[in-house]
């Protein structure tokens, strides 16, 4: 069982920055992946970013490339999502998710992740 706890969501003005954290209770070697997804009010959940833990390879949704950075800290068992140049359209509940056996072609699919956190609200005002 893997438990995930997000933190760092807040209200911020457009152009500002936030850093989200996802504390992972335990991780495994091999194909362990942690992803960030977001869901805006009235919209479907969408992929934001993910990282293959052992290889430290990041993946990004096109609209956040160059603005968001995903990184992991082995010692803290934590994945961070640094969000810069925030826009009102980034407003959503951000959730981290994890899976122990995910293949690369499935990394952007939320239905492929077995473990989910509760989410943290990010609100970007214009």
Task: Summarize the topology.
Layout (H helix, E strand, L loop, with lengths): L3 E4 L3 E3 L4 E7 L8 E7 L6 E7 L4 E4 L7 E6 L4 E6 L8 E8 L15 E2 L3 E6 L1
Parallel strand pairs: 2-11
Antiparallel strand pairs: 1-3, 3-8, 4-5, 4-9, 5-6, 7-8, 9-10, 9-11
Features:
0% helix, single chain, 4-stranded antiparallel β-sheet, mainly beta, 11 strands, 126 residues, globular, 7-stranded mixed β-sheet
Give the mean pLDDT: 95
**Secondary structure tally: strands:** 11
Report the β-strand fraction as a percent range. over 45%
Radius of gyration: 13 Å
Low-confidence stretches: none
Order of helices and strands: EEEEEEEEEEE
| Alpha carbon gap, first and last residue | 40 Å
Give a written overview of the molecule.
The protein has 126 residues and is mainly β. The chain is built from no helices and eleven strands. It is globular and about 40 Å long. The relative contact order is 0.32. The model has no long low-confidence stretch (mean pLDDT 95).
Compose a concise summary of this entry.
The chain is mainly β and 126 residues long.
